[in-house]
Design a protein that fits this description.
Keywords: DNA-binding, Transcription, Transcription regulation. With about 325 residues, this protein is an alpha/beta fold. The protein contains 15 helices and ten strands. The longest helix has 20 residues. The chain starts with a strand and ends with a helix.
Length: about 325
């Protein structure tokens, strides 16, 4: 029988409760699924705080730390997770914790962060020279660590085929920690068991790699309150129209040069890239709901030919529309 793996998660004042409970529930559900199949539990779950006892989360209720991290031998842990939350700022200045994490990284099999917990590991210098991600609202803060390779569009950076990324990794905002935990379970126990867990939790086994953290249709910048507002609100309903630079400029009553300048200033990308992401998001939604064929989806969302849709899916999601539809639709 394989040795049971200890999955530990830090807790501290004002931690985000879902950053802790979401991933740990995946491991707990893996134990349940194994027991349903007549196998022993694979994981032991452990909460580590400054001291044993209750710790108040940012939601107001409390979690109970099983043990104090200063008293734990990191070598006894299989996987250590560092969650995010409002309390991250204080923990980034917690010298003893940062030193313990640096020592733990050398001894645990896997060390990862959930959401803004990446800022704690970055402060400890553990992501120097490595790729990392975090909640979209904290990407700028993560980018202040010049030695960190920030992957803002990744749900998580765990990769079982890459020894470095299988040892040290991070996940994006909140529920992406659940995606990360499922990937860890799949690496440990196989795809079939991980799929059983995903089905039990009513979620995808694996959302497409490279997927942005939130829908670009919901991402109209708050700063775009002037000449682009009407155009940005008009675009999602006209994805099948001619959306060339000239057509957009005419719709917005400005020159093409001014349009491109405002897009880059206010949206952070050119109009062509923004529209491709809108069309991609619309195509994803249609394929997920199985409302139309791939050919029809390509036409309705402005890609025209299915091959154009396929190229965009491969470029941004690393999966074909057909595979995406079969896997998630």
């Amino acid at each position: 029988m394989d040795a049971i793996r200890t999955i530990a998660c830090l807790v501290y004042p004002d931690v985000m409760s879902l950053d802790v409970t979401g991933p740990l529930q995946v491991f707990a559900s893996a134990n349940v699924e194994r027991q349903r199949q007549g196998w022993p539990a694979a994981y032991e779950l452990l909460l580590l705080g400054d001291a044993p006892g209750a710790v108040a989360t940012s939601a107001g209720f409390k979690l109970v730390a099983d043990a104090a991290w200063p008293e734990i031998d990191p070598g006894s842990l299989d996987t250590l997770l560092v969650p995010g939350g409002l309390g991250v700022t204080a923990q980034r200045h917690n010298g003893p914790l940062l030193a313990w994490l640096r020592a733990a990284e050398q001894r645990v099999r896997r060390l990862g962060s959930v959401c803004s917990g990446a800022l704690i590991l970055a402060e400890a210098g553990l992501f120097d020279g490595s790729k990392a991600t975090t909640h979209w609202a904290d990407l700028e803060a993560l980018g202040e660590y010049a030695a960190v390779e920030v992957h803002g569009d990744s749900l998580h950076t765990f990769d079982p085929t890459d020894p470095a990324a299988a040892h040290l990794f991070s996940s994006a905002g909140v529920t992406a920690g659940i995606d990360l935990a499922l990937a860890l379970v799949e690496a440990d126990l196989g795809r079939a068991l991980a799929l059983s867990v995903a089905q039990r939790l009513v979620m995808f086994l694996r959302r497409p790699g490279g997927q942005t953290q939130f829908s670009p249709m919901l991402a109209t910048p708050s700063s775009a309150v002037g000449r682009l507002t009407a155009l940005l609100e008009w675009l999602p309903g006209h994805l099948g129209d001619d959306l060339s630079i000239e057509a957009l400029a005419e719709q917005a009553h400005m020159t093409p040069r001014t349009l491109c300048r405002l897009f880059n200033q206010e949206v952070g990308m050119g109009p062509g890239r923004y529209i491709e992401r809108l069309r991609l998001e619309a195509a994803r939604s249609l394929l997920l709901s199985a409302e139309a064929s791939i050919t029809t989806v390509a036409r309705l969302t402005g890609f025209g030919h299915p091959e154009n849709l396929r190229r965009s899916f491969q470029k941004h999601l690393s999966v074909s529309p057909r595979d995406f539809s079969q896997r998630f639709g």
